[in-house]
Structures are given as structure tokens and as C-alpha cells.
Amino acid sequence: MMNTEELLAAAGALLEPWTVEKTTPEEGRVDIVVEADHLIEAVTALVNAKWGYLSALTGLDLGPEAGRMEALYHFCHYAAVLTLRVRLGRETPVLPTVCGVIPSTSFFERELSEMFGITVEGTPNTDHLFLPDNWPTDTYPLRKDFDASALRAQDENRG
Amino acid sequence: MTQPVEKKGDRFIIPIGPQHPALKEPGHFEFTVDGEMVTDATVRLGYVHRGIEKGVESRNYVQNLYMLERICGICSHTHAMVYAMGVEKLAGVEAPPRAQAIRLIVAELERIHSHMLWLGVAAHEAGFDTLFMYSWRDRETVMDLLEALSGNRVNYSANLLGGVKFDITPDQVKDILEGMAFLEERNRHYLEVVMNDMLLLGRIRGVGTMSKADAERLGAIGPTGRASGVARDVRLDAPYGAYRTFKPVLMLAETGDLEGRFNVRLREIMDSIRLIREAVTALPEGELTTRMPRRIKEGETVSRVEAPRGEAFYFIRSNGSEMPDRIKVRTPTIFNMATVLTLARGHQLADMPMILVGIDPCFSCNDRMVSLKRQGEEAAGGDAVAGPVMTWNEFRKAVMR
């Protein structure tokens, strides 16, 4: 069996064609930046090679000043953790769905879009997963400029 | 909920929940049925969504330890431990060996309590209430041990950033070993009952079967995945803390049905008992805590542990201040919930509670409190409060009889 370093090297080689940037943030982890347009190809390559499983999908808002958001697809294979980082503009963040390759991503994509306002094109279900049905539109709680007090005031006015 | 049954063509959609669809936790399911047969299922979650991922961004690292421990009333220690491990990694600090062993002991006690709770709920859903009551009576043994160690039944608050809060004394080791002997005997009996009782087997054998390929495709993890032969356990795949020294045994079943899930969880209880025995008898000497900085240096980390229900995944991003920039929490149930929706198809509506319970979805459990009347309280009504009439152990023994 391959050790963690070899597993990460194998993943790095698999993703070579789409790699924009590659970093090693800590032991046992590799972060690879890919373009949103290449996300499905990169994920397909990992799935076809049976390289681990998609463990989580993290949304990251770098704030209005940076004007950027990121979607982090964390793949775990034994002790190795590979993160595909997709950089998105904050104005109109759009990602393609990976449900065609990994069906269980549906929940993660629903969460990502309701919490960060990232549009996931082609995802099978766009209903809210966690937020209430009457949650105001264009209000995304995990964005850095989300203001809970405004929402609270609105709630009180409604009675 | 008094939502009317909706007719769609020649199919009916039956809404179940959000109030307690088989468990004491809110969740809303819509089952499309053709006669008694379920043909489709959808889920709506979020009834206990508390905005914790947002909340942690405006609290410091210490406050967050308490916040995150309250995500779950069953695997509270798991959340605190995975968070503490992540923050320690970011700060470049390692908890002392004794603290790591204590974390393991509490984690395995928690696993026993979680699996025994599940056994009771699952038995109840199958209509086997005798097993439900016996298993929950016996589960009190492990709850009492946790309470004796930490002072709490639910949120044990064992972790600190950089270590643990309490030690385990030789007396407590003796109690733990006694408790383990009792639980081992009881769980061996339950394993026998589950594998041989024809009435129970009628409800679990061949029900909710998930092939290994399906389990992998749908991302089943934890005991739910292992019951379908998915050989994944973070404790073995990416050993952390004291699991580098004390190795668990991977429990697998090939059947993939509810029987397999009973089998895997019960054998995991037996293995946890073995791990606890080994750890308490070989507790490393030394400090319980190490110094932690208030500000955590900039960086990102991933922390994973094996919760009773499967892998718990934390992503922590620090911007160098006292508060984290982002904490992503991914709990095992969201993975396993996807399997329920797929497994539901082609089963009888009456099997839904069992299939749902089969994955052991995480539900909050109630804390409880007992107040003891103290000597002199009535007479003086003021300051003259002496010690309790009974010690906690005496009281427990008196009421449990």
C-alpha cells in the first residue's frame, strides 16, 4: 500500500493537466487550484482512479475587499487529504455541479448555494436544505458582510 | 403536521414530520408511494439549525470549544476533540500523552453510550421494547461512568485547548473496569439475542439492503458503511492522538442490511470495551495540559475523527487573530441521510422507520438534573448547609434498585 506522501503524489500527477497552482499547507495535505471550467474533469479523474472520497465541500468568503470566494472540495484517502480549490468572483459566483460524477454531492451543493449564494449549475435540487422557506432572497448568512441585526429587525417588524 | 396527502397521477405523496418521524428529532420526509410501496423520497432538514458555523466567527477559540461541543448531545466529546485537535495543530502544540489517552477513553465510552442508545431506539422501532428497555437500563452504567469522570452526562467538557480538564484516578479506573465487565457480559447477550431472535430477524434481515457498490457511490460512512463492507474508519486510516498506540479492530459485515448494522455496532461496543481496558491500565504518566497561545497563527487545517456515526470532518481557517475566520463542520449524518433516500425506494412504507433508524441519525438528547436535599436546609433556611445526606453514588444505588 502507498503511504500518504505517495498517495498525494499520485493525485498530483492525476490532476496535472488542470493544475493552476499547487501548495502543501501541512503534512498529509495538498491543495490544488483548478478553474471552475475544469472542475468536473478533475473530479472525474479522481473518481475514476478511485482516489478516496469527497469528504466535504467548504465555502469560503474572503470578504468584500478581496472580492473573492472559494469552494473547497476536500477528498480524503486514508490519511491523505487533497483539496481542490476553485476561485470564484464574489459578484456572480458560478460552479458546475459534480452530481453527475458523485451523486451524494447534492446536499453539499444545496448547502453551499443557500449559505454563500453560489449558483451551482445543473444541480438536481435547488431547494433550501437548512434555511427556512421564508428566508429572504439574496441573503446569504455565511458571507462576511451578512448582517444578522438587519434580519432580526425585519423579523420583529413582521411580528 | 396535518398536511393533506397529495395525489400526483396515480401516486400519493405522504409527508412525514417534521415532528418526530420515527425519532425524537425533527426532520421532514416526503415519501411517494404506489400502494404500500415507496417509489421516491425527499428530505428537508434544518429544523434544529442554529447557525453555529456563523456563530463561531464572532467568538474566540476558547468560547468556540464550548459552542461546538453543543452541536450534538450524543457525540459532544467528538466535536470538542476534533476541534481541539485542529486548533492545536494550527498552533503547533501537542496535547500531553496522558491527555490524549483520556480523550480516547472518553471517546470510546461515548461510542458505547451512543451505540447502546441506538440499539434501544432500533429495537423500539422494530417493536422489541423489552430489548429497548434492557439496553437503556444497561446504558446507564456508561452514563454513570462518564458522569463520575466529568460531572456531566451529556456535554462532558473533557477537552481544553492543549489537553483535558480532568484526570482519571486509580479508584475511577477500578469503577471503569467493573463497568466494562458488566457491559461486556450484557452486550454479548444482546448480540446473541439480535442474531437469533426470529421475530426481530424478520424485521431486519434483508431489509434496507445496500450493496458495497451503492454504499461507496452514495458515500455511506461509519457503521452504516461498514455494515455494507466499506472498510473505512478514521481511527485506523488516519490514526490520531492515542489511537496511534491503542489500535481499534475494523468491524465489517458483508450483508449490508439492518442485521449487518446491528452486528457491526454491537461488535464495535465490544471492541470499545477492549480499547478502554487497555487504555486505563496503561495510562501514561504526566501532565494533563500544555500551554496554548491565545492568538492562533494564520493558516488552514483539516481535522478528522471517527465519531460514533462515522467520520466527522472539520476545516479550520485562522487569520492570526483570537477568533477563527471560518470553521466548516461536516458531520456523518448528512452522508448517511443520502443513503436513506435511495434505500427507501422499493421498500414498504412500514419499513421506513427502521431504515431511517438504521443509519443512526444524530438526535439531541435531553440533559437531566437531580437535586439533593441537604441536611439543615429546612430548619435553618439559610447558611447552615452541611454535606448531602447521601453521596451521589449512594443516591444512584438507592434509586436504581
Provide an overview of this structure.
The complex is a heterodimer of chains A (159) and B (401). Chain A has a single domain, classed as NADH:ubiquinone oxidoreductase Nqo5 subunit (Beta Polymerase, domain 2, 2-Layer Sandwich). Chain A has four helices and seven strands; from the N terminus they run H-E-E-H-E-E-E-E-H-E-H. In chain A, the strands form two sheets. Chain A has a five-stranded mixed sheet with strand order 1-2-5-4-3. A two-stranded parallel ribbon of chain A has the order 6-7. Chain A is elongated and about 60 Å long. The mean pLDDT of chain A is 91. Chain B is an alpha+beta fold and 401 residues long. Chain B has a single domain, classed as Cytochrome-c3 Hydrogenase, chain B (Orthogonal Bundle). In chain B, the strands form three sheets. In chain B, strands 1-2-3-4 form a four-stranded antiparallel sheet. The chains are: A alpha/beta (159), B alpha+beta (401). At the A-B interface, strand 3, strand 4 and helix 3 of A face helix 8, strand 7, strand 8, strand 9 and helix 12 of B.
Helical content of chain B (DSSP H or I, runs of 4+): 40-55%
**Percent helix of chain A:** 25-40%
Return the CATH architecture of chain B.
Orthogonal Bundle
Enumerate how many helices of chain A there are, as a single number.
Answer: 4
What is the fold named in CATH at topology level of chain A?
Beta Polymerase, domain 2
Please provide the ordered H/E string of secondary-structure elements of chain B. EEEEHHHHHEEHHHHHHEEEHHHH
Share of residues in strands of chain A = 25-35%
Considering residues with a beta carbon less than 8 A from a beta carbon on another chain, report the largest interface and each chain's count: A-B, 37 and 32 residues
Oligomer: heterodimer
Overall pLDDT confidence of chain A = 91
- Count every helix of chain B, treating DSSP H or I runs of 4 or more residues as helices: 15
Q: For this structure, what is the CATH class of chain A?
A: Alpha Beta
Task: Supply the helix-strand structural class of chain B.
Answer: alpha+beta
Q: In what order do the strands lie side by side in the largest sheet of chain B?
A: 1-2-3-4
CATH topology of chain B: Cytochrome-c3 Hydrogenase, chain B
